[in-house]
Amino acid sequence: MFGDNWQRYHLRSNFSYNINPRVNFDFGLGGFYTTVGSVRDTTEIRSWAGTTFFWPDSPGNFRRFVLAHRLRYELRFFRESGGSDWFIGSRVRYRISTMIALNREQMEDGAFYITISAELFADITDDDVELFHHRNRLMVGLGWVTSPRWILELRYVYQRSKDSFTNRLELTDKILEFRVKTSVSVINLMKGR
Q1: Residue 193: band (very low, low, confident or very high) from pLDDT cuts 50, 70, 90
Q2: How far apart are the C-alpha atoms of 85 and 80, rounded to whole Å?
């Protein structure tokens, strides 16, 4: 991250089921801890369910430019540091993204790639329980597929958020993320592969 305004630590698990090569459903659970300078820290437990579909699925050389559309519903439980009350919020997120392999035809072992996305957030609860919400996000990054199960990414995220308590203050965050992603096929584990 640039500056010392806030920091977030999180651990998430996600389970996905592929209906076919163009559509999958997923659900997950995550824990988040956010520090906001001297203001207050928040603990969040977040569950979600969503779907991703890939369109257009272009033939030939343009196949590398498939767009992924993700729609996700989130149910979120918050608690501020020093407080005993938990607040509930929910929102919908829509993300459009693509990953373009640079040195391979596809996303396979050894592929370096560029990833680009834009994401919109819409709160659907009546009360504004989150300090910063009404968020929009743009992201660009570089990644490396190290093996069928491991991916490394360096991402730059630009996001704007609105302060729900005053409805005036807008924040712009410039975030540098390093991500390590892994996946495990539960079906293959059950089959002993």
Answers
A1: very low
A2: 8
Q: How confident is the model at residue 1 (pLDDT cuts 50, 70, 90)?
A: very low
Burial of residue 19 (CB within 10 Å: 0-12, 13-18, 19+) is exposed
Measured CA to CA, the distance from residue 21 to residue 178 in angstroms comes to 28
Which strand (E) or helix (H) includes residue 175?
strand 170-182
Length of the chain: 193
Residue ranges of domains in the chain: 7-191
What is the dihedral sign for C-alpha 20, 118, 184, 75? Answer: negative
Contacts 24+ apart (CB under 8 A), 22-27: 22/53, 22/54, 22/55, 22/57, 23/51, 23/52, 23/53, 23/54, 24/51, 24/52, 25/49, 25/50, 25/51, 26/50, 26/51, 26/52
CATH number, domain 7-191: 2.40.128
Q: Is the pLDDT of residue 53 over 60?
A: yes
Q: Say what the pTM is.
A: 0.80
